[in-house]
Specification:
binds adenosine-5'-diphosphate, binds ligand LMANGFYV, globular, Aminoglycoside 3'-phosphotransferase, Chain: A, domain 2, 6-stranded antiparallel beta sheet, nucleotide-binding
Length: 464
């Protein structure tokens, strides 16, 4: 392996590097699934940090970039400095055919003129450089590669990029580890590292324990950029399993019940490991205000929601009324974006939960706030509904049975059946369905009818 370059932030070549990459990235970036600013033109870039990981004087170069992407603000939104993205740019004389899908473009001027730049994660060698840096706890420029000293990282593991549609990007090493590189990054504690670390310390086996992680220090800001964790080899995710069973007309309630139990175990461990708070009238009112605000924004973004706005709002008002009568709820750290795709079943039949990033579009501070655990439960209930409504022949009875089994499983562990608090549950399911409408409109417009069918039911106060 080519040794990692000594350091460094390339103050003198940074601007010419960026100038030469600029026209290529303007075309390539908006086409990436993980690019959150789709629909608005990219007007320029600023380097937050550029670090040379492999000097491109040999056959292969590798740059780590934190890049602020300038775009006009969304209509009605306040001016925004632009999102910061993490990129790994490979540099070669020419790309071998196997790397054709990774092409970013051919550089015409500047220090890399005549070279080809590409998405380096597709390429085993640069990806292996990252694993080696984590293994050896390297420091390169502002990049801090760290690891849990109790877990071994073997050398010689071969890297392959995951090609699934994701909000971030992941590389699998052998069948042993998976490295998730966060794409849109903000400074501060990231729940995708914070929560699994807390659960590992609490001895909760339902979440793979982080093995290593990457930070970047930029001025006084610290960013979490990547997390390495054990790979659950041969696992199937809950979404694929559910669709498979649905297609065969098979019952999925035993798995739904097991998922309810797994969620409850994670919630119980999180309530012990991290702070909990009691939500009284004032706190609940501000949660409800947040839900209403999201609904208003969603209606602006997706006008198809407008006919249901009143009905949906009544779900939030019913919750505010309960709080005004003096009801209180306990809030704790939760998953924040739980759905069937975030649940992995090992070949031995054990369920794990992954991806504690929360809803990627929400501010970090909001994603780290304690919330009623029903938020995750609502996410899973929505997911059973999603599966049933994306099947060739929608099967609402299948969704109904899974939702019931999931709640029963949850109650078996915690003693609390979420269905005994229907007002809270409806408000959270509504909030999630509204989020999904915006998510689908932005990322997968063909899927919009799925959450919209739930919106119609929720607005008429019949979530099933
Ligand atoms: N520990 C793991 N073992 C096996 N597969 C995993 C593991 N963690 C993630 N995956 C796979 O990687 C995919 C993406 O991971 P996820 O954390 O959800 O990333 P994203 O935030 O980009 O959606 C998952 O859907 C799952 O298939
Ligand atoms: O997995 P991510 O953290 O990137 O979550 C985002 O993408 C999900 C889709 O991949 C999206 O989930 C929605 O679609 C799922 C089926 O593909 C379904 O199971 C979920 O219930 C539904 O919410 C998720 O909302 C989004 O944040």
């Amino acid at each position: 392996m080519t040794p990692m370059a000594e350091t460094v932030t390339l103050s003198d070549t940074t601007s010419s590097l960026l100038t030469s990459l600029d026209p290529l990235l303007r075309t390539w970036l908006p086409r990436q699934r993980w690019f959150a600013g789709k629909g608005r033109p990219v007007t320029g870039f600023t380097a937050v940090a550029v670090t040379e990981l492999l000097r491109p004087d040999g056959r292969l170069g590798l740059y780590h970039l934190l890049l602020r992407v300038h775009q006009p603000s969304a209509p009605g939104a306040p001016p925004h400095p632009g999102d910061c993205y993490q990129l790994l740019i490979g540099v070669r004389e020419a790309l071998p055919p196997r790397l054709a899908p990774a092409l970013i473009g051919h550089v015409e001027e500047g220090p890399l003129a005549g070279r080809t730049v590409y998405e380096a994660l597709y390429d085993a060698r640069p990806a292996e450089v990252l694993l080696e840096a984590l293994r050896t706890q390297a420091r390169v420029g502002g990049l801090r590669f760290e690891r849990d000293p109790q877990q071994e990282i073997r050398t010689g593991l071969v890297a392959r990029m995951m090609t699934a549609e994701q909000s971030n990007s992941s590389v699998v090493y052998g069948d042993t580890f998976i490295l998730k590189l966060l794409r849109r990054v903000v400074p501060g504690v990231n729940p995708d590292l914070e929560i699994p670390l807390a659960l590992a310390r609490a001895g909760c086996p339902r979440v793979p324990a982080p093995t290593a992680w990457l930070h970047a220090d930029v001025d006084t800001d610290a960013y979490v950029l990547a997390v390495l964790q054990p790979y659950v080899s041969g696992a199937a995710d809950g979404w694929d399993l559910a669709l498979r069973e649905l297609a065969k007309g098979e019952d999925f309630t035993a798995e739904a019940r097991a998922l309810g139990r797994a969620t409850a175990e994670v919630h119980t461990a999180l309530a012990r490991a991290l702070p909990t708070v009691t939500l009284g009238h004032t706190q609940l009112q501000s949660l409800v205000d947040g839900m209403k605000e999201r609904l208003t924004e969603a209606v602006q973004a997706v006008p198809a929601l407008r006919p249901y706005e009143r009905g949906l709002c009544s779900a939030y008002e019913a919750l505010a009324d309960l709080a005004a009568e003096g009801r209180t709820w306990t809030a704790q750290r939760v998953h924040g974006d739980l759905h069937l795709g975030q649940c992995l079943r090992s070949p031995a039949g054990e369920w794990s939960l992954i991806d504690f990033e929360g809803e990627p579009a929400r501010p970090l501070a909001e994603r780290r706030m304690p919330q009623p655990p029903v938020r995750d439960i609502a996410g899973m209930l929505r997911s059973f509904d999603y599966a049933a409504h994306s099947a060739n022949v929608p099967d609402p009875d299948w969704a109904h049975a899974c939702r019931a089994a999931y709640c029963s499983g949850y109650a078996e562990v915690t003693g609390l059946d979420p269905r005994t608090d229907p007002v809270l549950l409806r408000a959270y399911e509504t909030d999630k369905a509204v989020y999904e409408v915006v998510y689908e409109a932005r990322h997968r417009p063909d899927w919009l009818p799925v959450p919209l069918s739930a919106i119609r039911r929720l607005a008429a106060s019949d979530p099933t």
